[in-house]
Amino acid sequence: MFIFQKDKKSNLRRGKLKTNHGFLKTPFFMPDATRGFVKLSTTKDVLATKTAAMVVNTFHLYLQPGLELIKKAGGIHGFMSSDLPLLSDSGGFQVFSLIHRSQKMGRIDDQKVTFKSPLDGSYHELSPEKSIQIQFILGTDMIVCLDDCPPNEFSREQMEKSVERTLSWAKRCKDEYLRQVKKRKLTEKNRPLLFSVVQGGVEVDLRRYCASELAKIGFDGYGFGARPVDKNGNFLAEILFETAKAIPENSLRFALGVGTPEDIYRCALMGWDMFDCVIPTREGRHGKLFYFKKNFSGFKLPQKNDGPVAKAPDFYQSINISNAIFAKDFSPINKNSKIPELRTYSKAFLHHLFRLNEPLGQRLAAANNLEFFQDLLTEIRLNK
């Protein structure tokens, strides 16, 4: 299902991944279609940006619109009216974030998580088995094990307990996954891919231990668990690099929540294959637009080394379209875009839309950023 070639000069892996909804070239970036849609974007908008796959959220879709409605639509692809490959996360990050922010919102034990819905206050349970069952009902191409997702500032003792629970739950998820595959009479060719998540916070040895134990269970891919930055917002380059090395070489490496353009670049050169983040659309909604710098002519990959990439090249810039300087800027939003509207409308017009809080402005900005991120991954894959 996944084949790749290692770059001769770096740790970059260029590959091809087969899913039930088509092939994906790796490394690739997935925008977050959290609740079944990319905010302020239609399916046509997403396709125009050359997006090849998206991420949906188990937690949010379970709560709203609910599984019965999605079942009636024939699964999440039918509900979203999209034929792109989809990955569903486990819902663990959202549930654990909810509870870590306020203990009144739920309880975590070794069997399951009990949580209070932020929508209506109703109580729900999420176990490893239930998370897998929900994702099979969604019908996504790639599914993720429920893991214990702690804050990176947890103590060593707390982190050790988190890792052990993650391993226990991964085994239960794999068992339930195999039951679902058998129950639904799926084959090796049409089963969804299963990912586990490597936890361990900022402790390198715990990350290595977690990855090693997960590999004994066996998964199609392994993700980087918890936030990729520390409590001060510093990118965990060394931790990501060491975690990538600890994951079985022939398996997919999924850098969950990464991230900024420079962090994606750095992680790709560490050997990570998959990325997802809300940054392109979230920043677009606030008027921030990403562009390659005028002198950018493709990446020249650095030589292979024994440590993480220290610094990404200065390859892009961002602007805030709400700034007054753009009020009379009649140059196109993006003259190099393949999207007609971005070549046609001016920055002055986009500035005008944001001043009026017109959703069209946010839609155009999101499209610009999604296209930039997809072009970024293309440049990483193609340039030597």
Summarize the structure.
With 384 residues, this protein is an alpha/beta fold. 39% of the residues lie in helices and 18% in strands.
What does this structure look like?
This protein is of the alpha/beta class and 384 residues long. It has a single domain (2-278), classed as Queuine tRNA-ribosyltransferase-like (TIM Barrel, Alpha-Beta Barrel), CATH 3.20.20.105. It is built from 14 helices and 16 strands. It has an eight-stranded parallel sheet with strand order 4-14-13-12-11-10-6-5. Strand 7 (106-108) and strand 8 (113-116) form a beta hairpin. Helix 6 (128-138) crosses helix 7 (156-183), helix 7 packs parallel to helix 8 and helix 9 runs parallel beside helix 10 (261-270). The longest helix has 28 residues, at 156-183. The protein is globular and about 60 Å long.
The number of distinct helices, counting runs of at least 4 residues, comes to 14
Please summarize the sheet with the most strands. Answer: 8 strands, parallel
Estimated radius of gyration: 21 Å
CATH class: Alpha Beta
- CATH architecture, by name, is Alpha-Beta Barrel
Q: How many domain regions?
A: 1
State the separation between the terminal residues, measured CA to CA.
Answer: 25 Å
Q: Do you know the CATH topology?
A: TIM Barrel
Overall, the morphology is globular
Question: Helical content, roughly?
Answer: 25-40%
Helix-and-strand structural type: alpha/beta
The CATH homologous superfamily is called Queuine tRNA-ribosyltransferase-like
- Oligomer type: single chain
- Poorly predicted runs are none
